[in-house]
Amino acid sequence: MRLQEHPVLDFSKKRGKKVTIYFEGKPIDAYEGEPIAEALHAAGIRVMNYTPTTGRARGIFCAIGKCSSCLMKVNGIPNVRTCITLVEDGMQVERQRGLEPLPRDYKPPKWKDAERVNADIIIIGGGPAGLMAAIKAVEHGASVALMDENPMLGGQLVKQTHKFFGKREQFAGVRGVKIAEILEKEAREKGVNIYLETSAIGIFQDGEERIVTAIRENKKLVEFRGRAILVATGAMEKMIPFENNDLPGVYGAGAIQTLMNTYGIQPGKKVLIVGAGNVGVILAYQLLQAGVDVVAVVEAMPKVGAYFVHAAKIRRLGVPIYTRHTILRAEGKEKVERAVIAQLDDSWNPIPGTEKTYDVDIVALSVGLRPSIELLHQAGAQALYVRELSGYVVQHDERMETTVRGIFVAGDSSGIEEATTAMLEGKLAGLAMALYVGKADVKNAMDEMEQVRKDLDEFRSGPFGERARIGEKKVMIK
Amino acid sequence: MNDEYLSRGYITTEELKEIVDMPSEERLRKKPVAVPECPQEIPCTPCAEICPTDAVSMPTPNDRPVVDYEKCIGCSLCVQICPGLAFFMVQYRGEKARITMPHELLPVPKRGDEVILLNRKGEEVGTGKVVLVIPRDKSVGDTPVLTVEVPLALAWEVRAIKVKEARE
Hints:
The structure holds two protein chains of two kinds. By secondary structure, chain A is an alpha/beta fold.
């Protein structure tokens, strides 16, 4: 099912040419520019593969290429992340059953044939942090190559229909989708060398040069060389334990936003949301905007963690929020058909007799994010666990440089916050990298960095900034 | 105000009165007046930045907005821009009240339409008439804004509407 009308988004302009892909031999309508898993979802297909050991059905979970829950066989090649691989006319897609080998005649690409890309600065991640860093670095005289494994720029901004907070100079009052457009336009106009559908797979060093190895469109190798690297790889959705939490239809909140707001695909008919933080209640509102029924939002904590105003938006439209409640299990055969919730006592145990069953086809998990630091870890940056930043993060200094010289970090990969702080951190890192590679005018860049630091401190100064303030203290290298 | 409201996700009218000084009846009868339902200290400033008469004070971005009802001219720019959709305008007219609210759902009702009135917890509390629509393309905040005429007794209850026909 595809969305036709929407109060904020216009999909008629976004959809590309109609093409046909084949799922287990059956033709499926799809549109150019949309990934395989999303097109299959629109056709009602939820099961992407069966697990190797127990043969359990798996569907999408994150829909941004991070979780491997959507691996399928595409044109005979197994382990394709179908959530970020775009459809092509005539494509043959099959469910993967466990571990499947590459075809015998398959010839992997060779490094000697890799495309070489040189720039002063290499940026991994084209979300708010990466784009802002690229824009700032180019403004201050550096050349930038930027890669993102998704088919479009903007990171998670591309699915945010709500207006952002902060100050108006920081895009407050502007919808996330619009901010993504503005940043992309600016980055392209300033001449940032952009590589989409390009996954970074390693960071290496060669003298003063740093190398990022990458795979483009699942098949071509690319070698990026520069003096400084920014890792702005964002975050990954967390999972919580409950019975059948792997059932297709138990989706990360972001995956539902991707289906619905990026590609105009109705995620389901009735949704239960787990977690009343900002992501959960904003998702509830976005589902209502897409005409999808939200039966309830459950939250284990005694209070709503979201900004109150976001919660109030869904309450006045009749969506109940049950604090001190959790999901006990999902039920259904190879797809979510029901969800059971219960109230929690003071020791967090479900209270017998309080169970409620909902007929839903989607369970949305919005139980937090964790920073994506894999590449930083591999590059040798010093990591530590910081609860306030929602997971393992790397140490960095005031200029966002990690413990490995020339490698910088910004945005959610430096600790979970939000897009406004990601953009500010991106600005800092962009300026710092332009200085590091010797292209920026020192005084100009230093002055601008000081202003950005002030803006960051101001944004984080309220009660909602407390976690970030504590977390930043723990990771900051003096 | 204690934070009991955070276990529910909505504030009661009594709680609203604890977070804002309410405009006088005399002021409410003069012209529309903006009343923010923004109880937390969050880093957000568009209402104060857009107000043409500096009626919204907010010394630092994390302070709550406070409206000077004498300076407020009832222009609705704050209702249009507020990212939290937390600004409303209220005006008393005879035995009716007019509530101005953001409406980001489809369909957007038309002027003259009768709509179902919803309170802060989504309960249907009656019907009212749409008297003004600012469509999305005329709104500075990209958010359609409706003014709905409701019974006076519901002036501090109604904060959303539902369009009568089922969406097709």
